[in-house]
Automatic annotation (TrEMBL):
The encoding gene: trpB
Keywords, in A-Z order: Amino-acid biosynthesis, Aromatic amino acid biosynthesis, Lyase, Pyridoxal phosphate, Tryptophan biosynthesis
InterPro entries noted in UniProt: Trp_synth_b-like (IPR006316), Trp_synth_b_CS (IPR006653), Trp_synth_beta (IPR006654), Trp_synth_beta/beta-like (IPR023026), TrpB-like_PALP (IPR001926), TrpB-like_PALP_sf (IPR036052)
Organism: Thiospirillum jenense
Pathway, per record: Amino-acid biosynthesis; L-tryptophan biosynthesis; L-tryptophan from chorismate: step 5/5
Protein name: Tryptophan synthase beta chain
Length: 458
């Protein structure tokens, strides 16, 4: 085992293919259904929303999908991203655990989201699309697509969840610097937004609502398509560059993870790190643990129902089988805005249902405490979302100290918190509190799950 702190790959080691876990699932995913007919969706059904290349990736069962050269050329600006050994944190915790983190905050937008934003912008530009619409929670995805749009000459319209729009003006400023239009959601620009405001003029918004607005706007013009930052197969596919690099970097460290940890909102950064390692576990029968960490205020995997549901609040999207708190559920306005989503990626939900992924929940205050502890040791301030992974990694390292075990812990530090300092200021001032979801609201949202034929619900 080496005594290095960072493990760097040169550009020649940038992956040439994304990894598609659909090819290796022990059992296939449940089909995606058309919202009107409840029949399996076709490529033509998705054509008003996505470009053809993205639709093919969404439905593909090919194990490897080539990364186009123009996408790889942009990736080269920050990829391969570094893998760090958290030696100062290990010392501070007095733990025999070996803690590693893959740092995605080195991308121009400050998070892992850029990996799929570049790919989606490229495929849309190649098919003659002029404008893309999208949603964003914490602003990391909106920032990433705004940057990608600038690089590929696309107009970008971002519906930003209202609570984050208010909390994070600098994320909005970053999007606008790249030339994107950033709109607080729910807005009065769409029917779905107006419907929410009619019921609750002070709505804090949700990713489900913002998705509805973005999709509604996208289908109104032939030159416009929709871009999604998480959840669907093609997004998770694009993120696998993270884990593919990390496998090589762990080999450089002459080590291998006993557990892999990442925060989960829609699932993209978790899948990006975990899926390539999961393939190795399938092939080599390894016992690596995969821990998906989510906020106690929006515990989709731990408290949700595994059922068909809409990806958005206005029911404009196809039906997917996933863990869900109900598409009508609006989570409390906690600071990890990127984790405020009612559903979980179908691939992750499927693997969790099969027992390959262990979900775990933490509350807001303990995550910020962990993030500050990490920052003091490692010198990097994590995004509030990434603090959930940090919190779980510290917990596992403390267990190693108590049990006298030396385990290798690898987590995804999915983004930096440089645009989230107001949240840290509020935490230090004692203004934050732990928020819990409303059980009655979840029960009401789940009672409205679509009635799908019994044969499809198995």
């Amino acid at each position: 085992m080496t005594d290095s702190i960072k493990y760097l790959l040169d550009e020649q080691h940038l992956p040439t293919n994304w990894y598609n876990i659909s090819a290796d699932l022990p059992t296939p995913l449940a089909p995606v259904l058309h919202p009107a007919t409840c029949q399996p969706i076709t490529t033509d059904d998705l054509a008003p929303i996505f470009p053809r290349a993205i639709i093919e990736q969404e439905m593909s069962l090919e194990r490897e999908i080539e990364i186009p050269k123009p996408v790889r050329d942009v990736y080269r600006q920050w990829r391969p991203s570094p893998l760090y050994r958290a030696r100062r944190l290990e010392k501070a915790l007095d733990t025999p655990a070996r803690i590693y983190y893959k740092y995605e905050g080195v991308s121009p937008s400050g998070s892992h989201k850029t990996n799929t934003a570049i790919a989606q912008a490229f495929y849309n530009q190649q098919e003659g699309v002029k404008r893309m619409t999208t949603e964003t929670g914490a602003g990391q995805w909106g920032s990433s697509l705004a940057m990608a749009g600038a690089l590929f000459g696309l107009e970008i319209v971002v519906f930003m969840v209202r609570v984050s729009f208010d909390h994070k003006p600098y994320r909005r400023a970053l999007m606008e610097t790249f030339g994107a239009q950033c709109i607080a959601s729910p807005s009065s620009l769409t029917e779905s937004g107006r419907a929410v405001l009619a019921t609750n003029p002070n709505s804090s918004g949700s990713l489900g609502i913002a998705i509805s607005e973005a999709v509604e706007l996208a289908v109104q013009r032939d030159d416009t398509r929709y871009g999604l930052g998480s959840v669907l197969n093609h997004v998770l596919l694009h993120q696998t560059v993270i884990g593919l690099e990390a496998i090589e970097q762990m080999a450089m460290a002459q080590d291998y993870p006993d557990m892999i940890i990442a925060c989960t909102g829609g699932g993209s950064n978790f899948a990006g790190l975990a899926f390539p390692f999961m393939r190795e576990c399938f092939q080599r029968q390894l016992n690596t643990q995969f821990i998906a960490v989510e906020p106690s205020a929006c515990p989709t995997l731990t408290k949700g129902a595994f059922a068909y549901d809409f990806g958005d609040t206005a029911h404009l999207t196809p039906l997917v089988k996933m863990y869900t708190l109900g598409s009508g559920f609006v989570p409390p306005g906690f600071h990890a805005g990127g984790l405020r989503y009612h559903g979980m990626a179908p691939q992750i939900s499927h693997l969790a249902k099969l027992g390959f992924i262990q979900p775990r929940i933490y509350n807001q205050l303990e995550c910020f405490a962990a993030g500050i502890q990490f920052a003091k040791a490692e010198g990097i301030v994590p995004a509030p979302e990434a603090n959930h992974a940090v919190c779980a990694a510290i917990d596992e390292a403390n267990k190693c100290r108590i049990n006298g075990e030396s385990k290798a812990i690898l987590f995804n530090l999915s983004g930096h918190g440089h645009f989230d300092m107001q949240a840290y200021m509020d935490y230090q001032a004692g203004k934050l509190k732990d928020l819990e979801y409303d059980h009655n609201e979840v029960a009401l949202a789940l009672s409205g799950l679509p009635a799908i034929d019994a044969a499809l619900r198995t």
